[in-house]
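name: query_chain
kind: protein
chains: 1
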Amino acid sequence: MKQQIMLKTLALFFLTLFALPVMSQGIIVYKNDGTQIQVPYESLDSIVTYKAVSENITFSVNGVNFTMVAVKGGTFTMGAPDNDPNAGFYEYPAHYVTLSDYYIGETEVTQALWKAVMGNNPSSFNENLQRPVEMVSWEDCQIFISKLNELTGEVFSLPTEAQWEYAARGGNRSKGYLYSGSNDATEVGWVAENMTGMGQHPGGQK
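structure:
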């Protein structure tokens, strides 16, 4: 049976790298308030660098527009704290991750965009093309990304786990909420507690 997964947001990145300021004991992270902190290497899980971004970019593919949101990089604590009662075992241990600037999709990949690129719509809940595409495998996603790159001349990929979590927590605009903008998942997303009926909601409504 084909593995059924939902294609999440795409992250647009450039292969151009730039150097982070480094010291022999770790890296220096410059904060928005003008201060800086030194993070020891042993505290970092990974360092990912991409070309700096400045503003959102909208692309058009066969008449379908989609927007990539500029995310300013930073250092954040990835994973769950030890006292989080809702965390799964796979979310431990919490650790520092430093990301440079990147782009991430404003919404999940919609059925409209999938159809514009692939020429078909495999989704079960297909009454509204602005809903996220579903019923696609990881292999399907790789073919989609390859065709999208050909159509746009850009280099798209699926986001890393760190990129996804950083953006979901609000990036460098995070105010310490559990989610991007709230501690209440129902205020900023569709979850079991606020879903009505079967199916999905169009992207961008929360």
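note: Confidence is low (pLDDT under 50) at residues 1-24.
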